[in-house]
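Input/output pair, single chain:
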Amino acid sequence: MIIGSCEVYLSAEWVKSLKEKRMVVKSLVEKTKNKFNVSVAEIDKHDILQSIVIGFACVSNEKNHAQSIIDNVIDYMEKNTDAVIDDIVTEIF
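Output:
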């Protein structure tokens, strides 16, 4: 069993309230869950307005497949939000 995990650090400079941030996060998380067979959630910096950290994980039987899923999810996230990706931390084990 191969597990791929990824933390995506985003910045949303236009966000002015926690309510607005929650709307951005909820939209991105729900869209990602519906499109891909991954577990996804906001995992850190819940109370920091302009910082978003989303984590997701997938299970596969091949490392290449897990990496492909991670790459596709990151690409999808990048295209479906106005937030800018600052950093990506990926682990496959």
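Residues 2-92 form a domain with the Alpha-Beta Plaits fold (CATH 3.30.70.1120). The CA atoms of residues 12 and 50 lie 5 Å apart.
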